[in-house]
Amino acid sequence: MTSPSIESLEKLLGTPRDGALLRFSLGMEHSKAGESPKAIEYFRAAVARDPGYSAAWRALGKALEGAGDDAAALTAFRDGIAAAEKKGDKQAGKEMTVFARRIEKRNPA
After folding, report:
1. Which of 35, 45, 84, 98 is most buried, judged by most C-beta within 10 A?
2. d(C-alpha 19, C-alpha 41), whole Å
3. Quick one: which of 95, 93, 86, 61 has its CA closest to 76?
4. What is the set of domains in the chain, with CATH numbers?
5. Is this prediction's pTM over 0.85?
6. At what angle do helices 36-49 and 70-87 cross, to 10 degrees?
7. Over the stretch 68-93, which tens digit does the pLDDT of each residue have?
8. For residue 77, which of 50, 49, 47, 106 has the smallest C-alpha distance?
9. CA 46 to CA 97: how far, in whole Å?
């Protein structure tokens, strides 16, 4: 069942308010609802619209990791770290570095 929050946000898709923030918000709502595939889809859409959106990269990485796709999560975190560094978002970069290292330790080459 779709939550009222998701329904109201989905009404904004395709309107002038549609953008990376809307897609990120939809991803967060789907994530809260336990709908990982839909959350991942919206997080991917958010970073496609704004490749510098470090919070969306972080959320994408966490959603992918939660779905058991460590390889894709690691890629998302690495892309997010690059985006955060380019933007000067040091905290997001540090967080994603920690998350990436955890995955690397679980999956040694």
Report:
1. 84
2. 14
3. 61
4. 4-106 (1.25.40.10)
5. yes
6. 30
7. 999 999 999 999 999 999 999 999 99
8. 47
9. 20
